[in-house]
Amino acid sequence: MATGTEPHPKSGGVRSGTRAAIDAPHLRTDRWWLAPAATATGLFLFVVYSTWRAFANADYYAAPYVSPFYSPCVAENCEPMRSGPNWEIFGGWWGLSPAILILVFPLGFRLTCYYYRKAYYRGFWASPPACAVAEPHKKYTGETRFPLVLQNLHRYFFYAALLVAGILTYDTVLAFRDEHYAWGHMGLGTLVFLLNIVLIWAYTLSCHSCRHIVGGQLKHFSKHPVRYRMWRWIGKLNDRHMLLAWASLVSVALADFYVFLVASGAFDDPRFF
Ligand code: FES
Question: 9 in a domain, yes or no?
Fold first, then answer.
């Protein structure tokens, strides 16, 4: 006779038929919900902030700084950011914010990141909410079906992220010029941009895909000493991937917010020289 507690034939995790039948939802006594709740809150705040800034289509340039949310600017409604030719590749794009065109790449990179997947699967979908805590869903198909099968695009987003990091590096170099395009400038914004680009590169290079590209599919490390050294180095960064994911998320929002404050006239960029 059915008792209502039999495992679903396709269920996984602690409810699967091969696991001990325990009635309690979990046996954990610690505050296991704290990490997913903090994660969900942090990601939610970032999504709200970045959505507001991406659609604002204003206050994203204050010479010599351009917001990382809007770089590279590829629409003609972008303000002239550089002394050379503008990057007006896409024309007016029907008046859409240029950030919409650009953010798909860094957002795709973060959305498909192995760490962020764990974070938002747990934080928003409770799938599962924590180790040894059963998820509420009746069946589990993993990342084998649409839309989650698209997570496998991560490696390609990694290549795009390398390009974006290169462009943000260029923007950081330009932050050493003043508003008249003369070199030798340094303001508080220059330091904000420097911190941001270091964290962006550290996060990008600590990617699991990067680690595999550098050191994967080798039979003998001894025959590839350079790749072995790079793999070891990236492995050390990879150990801190979660930390770098959060630090770079905060730093990119901070760099954008700094540009917003200066561009909107709420704050003057203090200059060191
Ligand atoms: Fe996180 Fe690639 S695994 S960025």
Answer: no
